[in-house]
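Chapter review: from sequence to fold.
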Amino acid sequence: MRGHGFLLASYVPGNSLLHRTPLAVKFLLVFACGLASFVIVDWRVSLAVLGALCGLFLLTGAGIKRLWGAVRPLAAVLLVIGLFQWWQLGAPTAARIVLNILVCVVAASLLTATTPVQQLLDGVVKAATPFRKFGADPERFALTIGIMLRSIPYIAGTFADVRDSARARGLERNPRALVLPVFITSVAFARQTGEALAARGLGEAED
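The token string follows.
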């Protein structure tokens, strides 16, 4: 099974300013970009913010190829969204919406590209600790995110491999040849993950 990224850039070891920035500050950056996507009303401002974030991403040493790898899975969706919004609301609004989505994706990729997964999960546990008084389990929450980060690229890679195999047999237009193998592989992966968690006494509800 070959590896595939999905939406966000994977961690790249380095010693850039962003690598050394405290995790809380990077969390705030992602939150601020998400908030800005609702506040910004001018596509030119969105473009300037996106340019600044892309510049920061390149300064981390991750490279343009990894940045494109984080954005590429969204390209078709963004094209459809952009065309629909252009038809409904005009070109400036369409550009603003698409650019704001890219701002959020690049900001999140900055976080994942400069933060090891374990440090990211530890930060999630720390951030969720105050909610323990309301019955939340920060460790279980971080575990869920960790499984998601591992599962999505695996399933995306499974689909790509099955698609390539179907294309080689001339079955790329056969939904059954695409969906059924991915479904079986995904279920098997989910069962293996569940068994691994159970063997470690994780994932079970407390009495």
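Two observations follow directly from the output. Residues 138-168 form the longest helix (31 residues). Residues 1-6 have pLDDT under 50 and may be disordered.
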